[in-house]
Amino acid sequence: MGAITLFSKLMDKILYLDDESANLSAFKASFRHDFDITISGDPKEALELCKKENFKVVLSDQRMPNVSGSVFFQQLIDIDPKPIRVLITAYSDPRSLKEAVNLGQIYFFIQKPFEQEEMQAIISRAISEYDLRERNQGLELRNERIEKEKVRAVLHNLQNQVNPHFLFNSLNMLHALIGKDQEKAKEYVLQLSDFLRISLEHKDMDTAPLIKELATISKYLFIQKIRFGEAIRIRQKIEDKYLDRELPVMALQICIENAIKHNAMNKDEPLEISISASTSGITISNPFRPRGQDPVSSGVGQENLISRYRLFGSELPIFGPREGVYRSWLPFLETK
User: Fold this and answer.
1) Which residues contact 187 (CB under 8 A, 6 or more apart)?
2) Sheet containing 325-331: which strands, arranged edge to edge?
3) How many angstroms separate the Cα of 247 from the Cα of each of 122, 207, 244?
4) Residues 204-248: pLDDT tens digits?
5) 328, 273 in Cβ contact below 8 A?
6) Domain coordinates of the chain in residue numbers?
7) Residue 236: which region, alpha, beta or left (left: phi > 0; alpha: psi -120 to 50)?
């Protein structure tokens, strides 16, 4: 017989397979007000329906002429393993029942004859099981995405801190200092090694308090001031009450590095970078003076920060120029 569907957008989709039309009619009459029911008397037709519809629960009679319910479920698993499978059986032999349950990977079974209340309770439990699995799968996918983003963030942090250009420029500056000022060269080596050590330590961290971010920045800026001299000036206005607030690790350094990389500067027109804090977050600002030939940038630094803020479920950072000043605003993270 053909499939009959009682349609309701608000009800959970159920498929019932049985070769006896009287059983199908009785099932339809009993549960049509509770579930969105599709009934079928043909296993092949039922499998085709499962390819087209997203059923939460599939019920099948065990004893049918051409194929048993457990074999039908075995075939269903290859098409769609997600529906919760419920076997309706007259078996009283535990061994036969166990074989049928194992073959079709049945999650629930009910023996004939059944009471309407008993069947309704089993279907409701099956729907709850389906919904729970869907939520868990969604959480697993989300956690997998978070882990991938964390790996990308780690790789970017390492690339951003310990990249060939940075090391090349730093070692060239060290070579120049050794011949001119050995005391300053010693201090330079200490600051550089501390900066690289902190960068590597941070690869396993998601967030850092502002006080640690500022300590890292002081070492980074020492290295850059040796290179650029009076062409860089730093103004910092941060009250102590903000020092324990959290930021994504290395977020502050990425913003300052961008300011140095993308803006023109010299000792007559130094690049003045201001760092200030408020209740909501940190602001890094500098004169907007794009270089004539701006160094090649993939933009991954800011994109990386935005992605990481999204993962924290936080307000997103804001970047951009306005009235001749480029501002990067990094909101503090709300941590428990």
Assistant:
1) 222
2) 232-237, 271-277, 281-287, 325-331, 318-322
3) 49, 5, 10
4) 678 899 999 998 888 888 888 888 888 999 999 999 999 999 998
5) no
6) 4-138, 162-331
7) beta
Pair 275, 234: CB distance under 8 Å? yes
Most confidently modeled range among 55-59, 187-191, 251-255 = 55-59
Rounded to whole angstroms, how far apart are CA atoms 82 and 54?
A: 9
**Run of H or E residues at 226:** helix 210-228
- Report CA-CA distances (Å) from 53 to 36, 38, 82: 12, 10, 12
Residue 269, by phi and psi: left (phi above 0), alpha (psi -120 to 50) or beta?
beta
Tokens of 325: 């000043």
d(CA 96, CA 255): 69
| CATH 3.30.565.10 holds for 162-331 | yes
Place of tokens 């910092």: 236
> 152 φ, ψ to 5°?
-60, -40
Read off the pLDDT of residues 130-175 as tens digits, 9 standing for 90 and up. Answer: 888 888 887 777 777 777 676 566 545 544 544 556 666 777 777 6
Separation in Å, CA 31 to CA 38, 57, 116, 130: 11, 13, 9, 19
> In whole numbers, what is the pLDDT of the chain averaged over residues?
82
List of long-range contacts for 97-101, beta carbons under 8 Å, 24+ apart:
99/70, 100/62, 100/68, 100/69, 100/70, 101/70
**Does the pTM exceed 0.90?**
no
Superfamily of domain 4-138: Response regulator (3.40.50.2300)
In angstroms, rounded to a whole number, what is the distance separating the alpha carbons of residues 189 and 178?
Answer: 10
- Say if CB 258 and CB 301 are below 8 A apart: yes
Q: Do domains 4-138 and 162-331 have the same CATH topology?
A: no
Instruction: Report residue 286: phi and psi, to 5°.
Output: -160, 155
Residue 250's identity, in one-letter code, is M
Residue 230 CB coordination number (10 Å): 11
